[in-house]
Description:
alpha/beta, 33% strand, binds magnesium ion, Xanthine_Guanine_PRibTrfase, Rossmann fold, binds xanthine
Amino acid sequence: MSDQIADPAKNFPVTWEELHRNAKALSWRLSDRGPWNGIIAITRGGLVPAAIVARELNIRIVETVSVKSYEHQSQGEVRVLKSPDAVPDEGAGWLLIDDLVDTGKTATVVRKLLPKAHFATIYAKPAGRPLVDTFITEVSQDTWIHFPWDLNPVSFMQIPR
Ligand SMILES: O=P(O)(O)OC[C@H]1O[C@H](OP(=O)(O)OP(=O)(O)O)[C@H](O)[C@@H]1O
Ligand SMILES: O=c1[nH]c(=O)c2nc[nH]c2[nH]1
Ligand SMILES: [Mg+2]
């Protein structure tokens, strides 16, 4: 959790409403590519998008893979804290959901674990884009996306746009 407002070239604050609409748009795009056996949410950022996609597509099986690499806005080594349980056949027919791809390092590691899963995110930056099968919105590499779960309403209003 960070309310830190650092200094990337561009700030892109996202409201809960925008996030919800974009996650629904992602669901509708994915519904044409199904049916899906289940969802694997990449924690923590993928949890809320995965919950919305699960409801929208009526998917009841949701696994997690826990990955960490950022401390505030600085990336370190990508660490898998927990592998997904009970996902057969290298993830074939499963959806891997995250909030975004940035450098693509997280996606690279998770794709190695589940090479046949379909990787979907709401946002993509150019460096990570080739690793995503389906996404909704592209933002430039020098943009920092501020998700609503990392902000309180006061700091949201203070982010320079
Ligand atoms: O493409 P990359 O440069 O690897 O960055 C993308 C990843 O970074 C963030 O996760 P983070 O490691 O910050 O953990 P979190 O999901 O718990 O916030 C985000 O949720 C993605 O998973
Ligand atoms: O909240 C976030 N916004 C971002 O733009 C980003 N890139 C990597 N990890 C991120 N987390
Ligand atoms: Mg993450």
